[in-house]
Amino acid sequence: MNHATEAPACVEIPCFLNADFAKTYTGKPLPSCGLMTGDLVCLRAASRVADGSLAAVQDGEDTLLGRLFRINNGVALVPLDTACPARIFAEGKDDPPHVVGEVTGWVHSVMNKEAEQEGGTVHAAGKV
Question: What is the reported pTM?
Answer without folding.
Answer: 0.72
